[in-house]
Predict the structure.
Amino acid sequence: MTPPVTPERYAEIAERIEREVGRVIVGQHDLVRTVVTCLLAEGHVLLEGIPGVGKTMLLRTLSTVVDLPFSRIQFTPDLMPADIVGTQVLEEDAHGHKAFRFRSGPVFASFLLADEVNRASPKTQSALLEAMQERAVTAGGETRPLPRPFLVMATQNPLEMEGTYPLPEAQLDRFLLKALVPFPSADDLVTVLERTTGAETDEPDTVADAPTLRAMIELTRQVPVASHVLRHAVDLVVATQPGAPGNPPTLQRYVRFGASPRGAQALVLAAKVRALLDGRPSVAIDDVRAVAPAALRHRLVVGYEAVADAVSTDQLIDALLDAVAAPTAGVRGTG
């Protein structure tokens, strides 16, 4: 029987998960924290970075640490939706009777790596929409549930790289957080080479299982959030809308479409995880502001002026946080 997950045990298990993943993934603490945050908030994560910086190994290692099945889809221009969700196949039994049977696709796993998701066509990318939102897929007229927890970690290459398609806004909005994967430092790269080119590799230990993670996810939802903290999350999202009162001039100039209500949900859920990982029983204003870049950077649709002036969404979020001041109530640790 799985012991109850208290806030103290929650933080302890999460710290052990991060430590075990860190035995394989070198120098990417913020990235690991972002992925673990999405897991504990039961959301999905989008990673952007050049190939070869360990994005695939990250999710594979996490699946080992929490003892959950892992599946990988390499997105290519000729990938079809049935290659993701599965399809009906006609089979004949030993007596010659023929019948259709559903053959499940790789989406039926707790951890799904959608590798280089923006190399597939928008039609194929959209095959993930129902799975990510409803945690179920419909094929052959029947809706089939996916395992819980269910985490999609999609990786994408920068759009200026050859052979990429922009992700549809509706799919981008399904990701709880988006992380930018930096190129490792020289010291970290030396460590990577030592670990990956030698005869021995460091295997992580398993520290959690599906029932424990489900209990942790339930505890995340139970974290209280004061009304003024919720209001600040709403104020941040509203201020991303072009023409909204208090909209910073920088956003008025460069943003075509602001964050959706899912952006506010992402701010609150990620802030709840951050509070628990920090050993606090309620969410503070600083939690919301700290997760704002990861929660909002993929939800701001910028115009060509931003591209021409080399203005990034992270710069726009910095301007947003400067313009929407934190309320005086709810200082760090008080919620």
User: Anything to note?
Assistant: Residues 330-335 have pLDDT under 50 and may be disordered. The longest helix spans residues 261-277. The CA atoms of residues 261 and 278 lie 26 Å apart.
